[in-house]
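Here is the promised in-class demo. Please do not try to memorize the tokens; focus on the logic of going from shape to residues.
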């Protein structure tokens, strides 16, 4: 299969390019951060330029497009709403239009942040959204555009962690990095989520396009944890003392934009479709640890910047 992945230097995009390149014909689009991933066709494309999108798609004509690229920095989106809208909404519109023109199936990666509630139960796909930040609103608008352009499109709501190609760190990497430096960290006891390891998400996304799933689906962990519980599980798995994870409330943080306290995703729909359970939080963390032991993190980060040093 010919698979195009936008945001190839990002957390999800980088992992997808690396994991899929051995099984599919893969092209990864990046812009500011060049990466060189083995067996993957890397292309520099400015998603803010409609002509570049059109020309790059027509030149390669993928069968599937997994649209990972976005400004996912919640505080930055709040501070720069026009720029966030250009990337998260307008570029999605252009990509969706051109995907439809070449008959490529679009898989749009969205977020759990489209939901806002303190309720105990998790949100199902068909429930009403309530985005309260610029980031969440622009991602929700991107969802609507993707689905409107083609009935074959697939929207995936998720919440990920894993190993990054770039020096920046996901929540999981940050927790382990701080504990390795013998530091104590704070974990929020009042923020709950359903995190899934990017490698597990990659497996489920591949199943999605092989089985032609469409519409809106939640891909997240089978169970729910607080950010504090998540950090404690990571500490335990990696052999650190849980006592170095200190409980705290989100009001003590320096976060600027609103954070929903329980945007947890129900995975009942996808589990019924697949006939099996999504990974539990503990299963994801165990795989996260095993990947670390296997040197996966170092391999992934070795792909960063190769194109820049080659002058490309």
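The designed amino acids, position by position:
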């Amino acid at each position: 299969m010919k698979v195009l992945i936008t945001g190839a230097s990002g957390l999800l995009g980088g992992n997808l390019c690396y994991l899929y390149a051995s099984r599919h014909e893969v092209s990864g689009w990046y812009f500011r951060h060049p990466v060189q991933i083995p067996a993957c066709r890397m292309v520099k494309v400015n998603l803010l330029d409609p002509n570049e999108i059109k020309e790059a798609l027509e030149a390669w004509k993928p069968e599937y497009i997994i649209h990972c690229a976005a400004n996912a920095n919640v505080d930055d989106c709040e501070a720069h709403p026009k720029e966030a809208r250009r990337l998260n909404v307008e570029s999605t519109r252009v990509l969706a239009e051109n995907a439809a023109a070449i008959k490529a199936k679009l898989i749009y990666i969205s977020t759990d942040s489209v939901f806002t509630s303190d309720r105990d139960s998790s949100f199902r796909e068909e429930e009403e959204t309530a985005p309260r930040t610029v980031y969440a609103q622009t991602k929700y608008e991107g969802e609507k555009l993707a689905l409107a352009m083609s009935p074959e499109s697939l929207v995936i709501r998720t919440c990920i962690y894993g190993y990054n190609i770039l020096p920046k760190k996901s929540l999981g990497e940050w927790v382990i990095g701080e504990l390795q430096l013998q530091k104590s960290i704070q974990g929020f006891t009042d923020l709950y989520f359903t995190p899934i390891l990017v490698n597990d998400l990659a497996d489920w996304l591949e199943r999605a396009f092989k089985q032609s799933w469409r519409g809106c689906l939640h891909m997240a962990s089978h169970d729910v944890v607080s950010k504090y519980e998540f950090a404690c599980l990571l500490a335990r798995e990696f052999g650190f003392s849980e006592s170095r994870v200190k409980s705290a409330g989100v009001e003590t943080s320096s976060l600027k934009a609103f954070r929903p306290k329980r945007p947890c995703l129900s995975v009942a729909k996808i589990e019924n479709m697949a006939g099996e359970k999504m990974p539990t939080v503990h299963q994801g963390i165990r795989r996260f640890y095993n990947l670390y032991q296997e040197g996966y993190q170092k391999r992934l980060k070795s792909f960063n910047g190769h194109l820049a040093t080659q002058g490309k």
